[in-house]
Amino acid sequence: MLIRFHKNNVLWVVGYFDNENKYSVIPNNWLIQCGNIYFCKWPKNGNISKMKSSFEEPENDWPTFPVKIITQSFNTFEEAAIKEKEIFILATPSESDNTEQVNKQKKKKKEHRKTYY
């Protein structure tokens, strides 16, 4: 069953686009639900941030992309945008994490290079 969300219930969610590895605030009128799978209509060009915040109605020619809904609904774009930033910060490895990972990789490479006679 295909469910299309409408403008009479103005809400925003934070979604994750797996193919792009990106999070975004999404107006719920851009979402299409098919069972427990969600798709998002996305504008081809223009001021996308303004389009999202003003709850612009999606055009028929906008491409559709699979999306994972990460959060509950928010009543304002601003609330959703704050949550998106929090999620992004928590999901982004810190500099120290990156340094530790690189050091571990270098150590593994050195261990593999050992030659035993």
Automatic annotation (TrEMBL):
Residue segments, region Disordered: 95-117
Biased-composition ranges, Basic residues, are 104-117
**What is this protein called in UniProt?**
DUF4806 domain-containing protein
Source organism: Aphis craccivora (Cowpea aphid)
